Amino acid sequence: METIRLSRATHQLLERGVEALEKIGRELERYNDWQEQTDGTDS
């Protein structure tokens, strides 16, 4: 497998991007859980 060398800044940028996507995923899970709990109770 070929090794790709990235600059430190690029590596940090990618890490921050992955962390942001993980946070978005967690928030979407929380939102979906909340929606399941509230479905049918508002109307």
Index terms:
single chain, 43 residues, mainly alpha, 72% helix
Largest sheet: none
Question: Share of helix among residues?
Answer: over 70%
Strand content: under 5%
* Count of helix runs: 1
Global structural class:
mainly alpha
Overall body shape:
rod-shaped
Unreliable spans are none
Spell out the helices and strands N to C.
Answer: H
**Average residue pLDDT:** 90
How many strands?
0
Question: First CA to last CA: what distance?
Answer: 57 Å
The quaternary organization reads as: single chain
Q: What is the alpha-carbon Rg in Å?
A: 18 Å
Folded structure, characterized:
The chain has 43 residues and is mainly α. 72% of the residues lie in helices and 0% in strands. The protein is built from 1 helix and no strands. The longest helix is centred in the middle third of the chain and has 31 residues, at 8-38. The mean pLDDT is 90.
In brief:
The protein is mainly alpha-helical and about 45 residues long. It has 1 helix and no strands. The longest helix has about 30 residues, at about 10-40.
Layout of secondary structure:
Blueprint: H1 8-38
